[in-house]
User: What shape does this take?
Amino acid sequence: MAFVGDGNNVCHSLMLASALSGVHLRVAVPPGFEPHQDIVSEAETSALAHGGSIVVGNDPAAAVAGADVVYTDVWASMGQETEAEERKQLFAAFHIDEALFARAADDAIFLHCLPAHRGEEVSHEVLEHPRSRVFDQAENRMHSFKALLLHLTGTG
Assistant: This one.
């Protein structure tokens, strides 16, 4: 799996979940936007124990090469709106377009936790690609949230 973008909360969660699942995850972020080192260390240790690996770098092409899954997230999350224009410039080389997606495995899927900013972190063509699973991913998240709410309210 490859994650391309900001070393943010989505990246952190993906690293930790991938590590527990034995997934080999390559993360590519712009210099200065790396995930927190304590989370990287925890994920690396966990991945080693579960047969996976976590590699963090700054080259999106290397991260995506041969990947079965390509994942990204928005470049400016809530609370970072004032940084959005600067981030567009800093993250431009981390845009998932058809050329970058083509470096993944021939049957690779694309994931994004939505909402996406078409033309920024991902092109319209990749978001709507036949191998994009973003809408299935969103539907699964909805059902997971419903189950969690039922559990927490004691009605499930």
About this structure: The chain has one domain: 2-153. The domain at 2-153 is CATH 3.40.50.1370 (Rossmann fold).
